[in-house]
Amino acid sequence: MNAFEITGGIKLKGEITPQGAKNEALQILSAVLLTEQKITISNIPDIKDVNKLIELLGDLGVKVERINKDTYTFEAKNIDLNFFESDTFKAKGGGLRGSIMIVGPLLARFGKAAIPKPGGDKIGRRRLDTHFIGFEKLGAKFIYDSKKAFFNVDATDLKGAYILLDEASVTGTANIVMAAVLAKGTTTIYNAACEPYLQQLCKMLNRMGAKISGIGSNLLTIEGVKVLGGTEHRMLPDMIEIGSFIGMAAMTESEITIKNVSYDELGVIPEVFKKLGIKLERRGDDIYVPSQKHYEIDTFIDGSILTIADSPWPGFTPDLLSIVLVVATQAKGNVLIHQKMFESRLFFVDKLIDMGAQIILCDPHRATVNGIDKKYKLRGISMTSPDIRAGVSLLIAALSAEGKSTIYNIEQIERGYQDIDTRLRALGAQIKRVNADAPSH
């Protein structure tokens, strides 16, 4: 098993460029199945979840060519629909949450699909109901094989429909949009997610010949077309990486410039970090974070404790709450972190408490952080990464801590962060990859 060994307490300095957006990649790559024409996609992150999906597309019969480090072409002319029945598909599709995203395009173009129950992070229940209910409203029929944990879908006659989503699911909205672009008639999706990544998908589909209006709002109207063509697309930088680097700079008292961040697409993210007292400046399309000895958490206007909660876009993304929580441990002041969407994402705080952080876990969704204002440093420990975001939060804690930390199960971190150890070493971090057995407890 691979692990990271980190010697903390070192100030970092320099420039770092965020990778392409993981959550956008899973949608955009699935959309190549909607046409037999060539699609070129650039700024693709070189991470496990994305590479697995590219490999799965190749297995399905998509002609995949790598042009350079972050650019690929895809040609989905000859798709092998029998691949769904193979053990290879069951194994690969079941180990990747993003595999659910290929269902919408396949239903739209071929009228059938199959999918094993997806895997991925252990952060609580992730419902797929939104996807399935949307497909059913368009006319798809689902057969679930509980023994094989497999869904077979028949969608030979998709028709436009009015769909009111029970939750503003990003992947659910994306999947339904991809199914609807080739359906007969008009589809209206209300309570649609409107994240920048979904806007990117809709703009790309329109360039391919789709007719989607309302992009950027929670009411999308899709007029079905008969066929889609090829296009070129460049993915946004990953906003979760950008937020992670802002938090890392504050925790380690480092002076860091985060390059090419597509600042206008970051929504409230910079403002939330400013509420923690972190100084940051926009410089063109870069974010400059100066070295700060101290940062103080705001209170609400009436003096009550600040609450930071996740909510659908344009609210604060749940993927950054773990980062906000760890950064708050070294701030001056208190904050209540409210993780509404996932019931297990705060369960890594025991590791931070072991490091010396003062945190009260109120319930599975809420934690109160009492910032220690850097009066003493966190101490290095051995720990295991439970999921992508918690893993990076623990990595940030370890970089700021006194002494040596070891993080096991780094495969979870590497599902979402490309060459993270190499890029951190370029800033001066003492981090190395080692082979080590995880502790048994």
TrEMBL record:
GO terms for molecular function: UDP-N-acetylglucosamine 1-carboxyvinyltransferase activity. It is found in: Cytoplasm. The active site is at D121. Gene3D superfamilies: Enolpyruvate transferase domain. CDD domains: UdpNAET. Pfam families: EPSP_synthase. Pathway: Cell wall biogenesis; peptidoglycan biosynthesis. PANTHER family: UDP-N-ACETYLGLUCOSAMINE 1-CARBOXYVINYLTRANSFERASE. This is UDP-N-acetylglucosamine 1-carboxyvinyltransferase. GO terms for biological process: cell division; cell wall organization; peptidoglycan biosynthetic process; regulation of cell shape; UDP-N-acetylgalactosamine biosynthetic process. It comes from the Bacteria. Residues 7-421 form the Enolpyruvate transferase domain. Cell wall formation. Adds enolpyruvyl to UDP-N-acetylglucosamine. It is an enzyme of class 2 (transferase). UDP-N-acetyl-alpha-D-glucosamine binds at R97, D319, M341. Phosphoenolpyruvate binds at K22, N23. One of its GO terms (cellular component) is cytoplasm. Its EC number is 2.5.1.7. It comes from Pedobacter yonginense. It catalyses: phosphoenolpyruvate + UDP-N-acetyl-alpha-D-glucosamine = UDP-N-acetyl-3-O-(1-carboxyvinyl)-alpha-D-glucosamine + phosphate. Belongs to the EPSP synthase family. MurA subfamily. Keywords: Cell cycle, Cell division, Cell shape, Cell wall biogenesis/degradation, Cytoplasm, Peptidoglycan synthesis, Transferase.
